[in-house]
Specification:
single chain; about 260 residues; alpha+beta; 5-stranded antiparallel β-sheet; 7 helices; elongated
Length: about 260
């Protein structure tokens, strides 16, 4: 019985089992085997996953006289588990390498998963978020109304450069975000989850504000200068801008 069967081999937890390590052999020696998973590879290369129990058969004196084993084929279950695990690894890799912040929430706005960019925006780790409620962490009546409308209507929402103040970090001042909220429907057609994506555009908004302020200052200085000033386009030579003093000197109106 210690000779290896030629028509198949058994692998459990990455290790090929010798005949004496097989569940039925162990049960014959008196062990009780429960929920034992093994992969059986047959001579033709076919592989099947089995889940089994094995128990010893004893005589009236309690001595083992053999064993009985029952197995079910769980190959499809194991394949599904592997595909699901691979999909989760892929999703995690995509989420952690996307340049925007991403969070998935349930319909009650509890976090399911966030990527590293989302967590780092608030100085936290991704593991902090699952199970916590979005609006307990970031209370905002206007945003909460938007979230509830998306759940109720099933219509996605998107906005650009929306101002936001961290309640726990008022010293940060106002930040600006492009964000979108996309509903995910379940098999019954109801909104079951939400995907929130955010991009921090604070630097862009502040640069645009500074540019507008600079332009306003330039216009004021240009218009109120005590000397005639004109801006012309080259090579056409056409005037594009003139100030009040220039018009006084030339006798022409700005138009």
């Amino acid at each position: 019985e210690e000779e290896r069967p030629a028509h198949f081999r058994v692998v459990s937890q990455g290790k090929e089992l010798a005949p004496h390590e097989l569940p039925v052999q162990r049960a014959a020696r008196g062990e009780e085997i429960r929920n034992f998973e093994e992969m059986v590879e047959f001579a033709d290369g076919t592989r099947r996953w089995l889940l089994g129990n094995a128990t010893s058969l004893r005589d009236e004196g309690g001595r083992s006289q053999g064993a009985v084993a029952c197995f079910i084929d769980i190959t499809e279950r194991k394949r599904t588990e592997t595909e699901l695990r691979d999909a989760r690894h892929l999703l995690a890799a995509v989420l952690d390498n996307t340049p925007v912040a991403v969070a998935c929430l349930d319909r009650d706005f509890n976090f399911l998963v966030v990527n590293r960019n989302y967590a780092q925006a608030d100085g936290r780790e991704p593991e902090f978020y699952p199970g916590r409620n979005h609006f307990e962490l970031y209370p905002d009546d206007e945003n909460e109304a938007i979230f509830r409308r998306v759940v109720r209507t099933g219509e996605p929402y998107a906005v650009q450069a929306k101002p936001f103040v961290y309640a726990a970090h008022p010293e940060r001042g106002v930040s600006y975000w492009d964000w979108s909220l996309v509903p995910i429907r379940d098999e019954a057609g109801e909104v079951g989850q939400l995907v929130l994506t955010l991009a921090d555009v604070t630097q862009r908004v502040r640069a645009e504000q500074a540019l507008r302020e600079s332009e306003t200052e330039f216009r004021a200085m240009f218009e109120l200068a005590g000397v005639g000033m004109a801006q012309r386009d080259f090579p056409t030579g056409r005037f594009t801008r003139v100030n009040r003093k220039f018009c006084e000197i030339t006798g022409y109106s700005e138009e």
